[in-house]
Design goal:
The complex is a heterodimer of chains A (about 120) and B (about 110).
Chain A lengths: L3 E4 L2 E5 L4 E7 L6 E7 L5 E8 L4 E4 L2 E6 L4 E6 L8 E10 L5 E5 L3 E6 L1
Parallel strand pairs in A: 2-11
Antiparallel strand pairs in A: 1-3, 3-8, 4-5, 4-9, 6-7, 7-8, 9-10, 9-11
Chain B lengths: L4 E3 L2 E4 L5 E6 L6 E7 L6 E7 L2 E5 L6 E5 L5 E5 L8 E8 L9 E2 L3 E5 L1
Parallel strand pairs in B: 2-11
Antiparallel strand pairs in B: 1-3, 3-8, 4-5, 4-9, 5-6, 7-8, 9-10, 9-11
Classes of the chains: A mainly beta (about 120), B mainly beta (about 110).
Chain lengths: ~120, ~110
C-alpha cells in the first residue's frame, strides 16, 4: 500500500526566503505526482502535476522535482510571500482498474511566511 | 475557466438524519472522485466514477452511497449520520489519462453532524 510522507509538518520563514518542501512515497511505480495548496477550511488548489517521465515542472515561482527511483519529490518556492501561507499537500495516484486513479495524500506541510 | 461545483457548501444535520451532497464536474471530464477530510486530517478517498459507472471504492461506510447521472453530475448520499461523519467532503474531476490525470477539486461541502 502506498504511503506518502511530508516533512516538515510545519515551517515558518521570513518573507523573501526561498524554501523547499519535501514529499516521499514508498512505492516508486507511480504515474505522476501532484502538489496542492489548501487554505484553512477551503478546497484544494492544484499547483503542479509532474509526470513520471519528467524530472521537473515549473509554474511561476514554483518548481517541483521528481526522483522516482528514490521515491522523493520536492516543491521549491522562490521569494516567498505572506500570501503563500497555507498547507501544501503532495499526492500520488493509484490505479485500481476501471478508470480510477484515486489519490493518496501526505499529511501536508503547513507553511507560514512572516512579513 | 469552469471549475468543479459542489452544493451545498455547508450542511448541518442531526444524528441519524440523511444528507445528499452534489457535485458538478468540469465539462468534458469523464471521471469523478469523492474524498472525505476530517479535522486536521489528509483527504481520504471514498468512491469514484468513470463514464457514469462506479470504478472504485475506498473507505466508504455502507451507510453511504453515490451515483453519477447522465449529465455527469454526481451525488453522495449519506444515511444514519453519526457525529464522526462531520468533515469536509470534496469532489474532484479529471480526464481519464494514465500519465496526466490531474484532479481538480471543488470547494467542498462542510458537513456538521450534531
Amino acid at each position: 500500500k502506498q504511503e506518502v510522507t511530508q516533512i516538515p509538518a510545519a515551517l515558518s520563514v521570513p518573507e523573501g526566503e526561498n524554501l523547499v518542501l519535501n514529499c516521499s512515497f514508498t512505492d516508486s511505480a507511480i504515474y505522476n505526482l501532484q502538489w496542492f495548496r489548501q487554505d484553512p477550511g477551503k478546497g484544494l488548489t492544484s499547483l503542479l502535476l509532474i509526470q513520471s517521465s519528467q524530472r521537473e515542472q515549473t509554474s511561476g515561482r514554483l518548481n517541483a522535482s521528481l526522483d522516482k527511483s528514490s521515491g522523493r519529490s520536492t516543491l521549491y518556492i522562490a521569494a516567498s510571500q505572506p500570501g503563500d501561507s497555507a498547507t501544501y499537500l503532495c499526492a500520488v495516484p493509484a490505479y485500481s482498474g476501471a478508470g480510477s486513479y484515486q489519490l493518496t495524500f501526505g499529511k501536508g506541510t503547513k507553511l507560514s511566511v512572516i512579513p | 475557466a469552469a471549475g468543479v461545483i459542489q452544493s451545498p457548501r455547508h450542511l448541518i444535520k442531526e444524528k441519524r438524519e440523511t444528507a445528499t451532497l452534489k457535485c458538478y464536474p468540469i465539462p468534458r471530464h469523464d471521471t469523478v472522485y469523492w474524498y472525505q477530510q476530517g479535522p486536521g486530517q489528509d483527504p481520504q478517498f471514498l468512491i469514484s466514477f468513470y463514464e457514469k459507472m462506479q470504478s472504485d471504492k475506498g473507505s466508504i461506510p455502507d451507510r453511504f452511497s453515490a451515483q453519477q447521472f447522465s449529465d455527469y453530475h454526481s451525488e453522495l448520499n449519506m444515511s444514519s449520520l453519526e457525529l464522526g461523519d462531520s468533515a469536509l467532503y470534496f469532489c474532484a474531476s479529471s480526464l481519464q489519462d494514465r500519465d496526466y490525470n490531474e484532479q481538480f477539486f471543488g470547494p467542498g461541502t462542510r458537513l456538521t453532524v450534531l
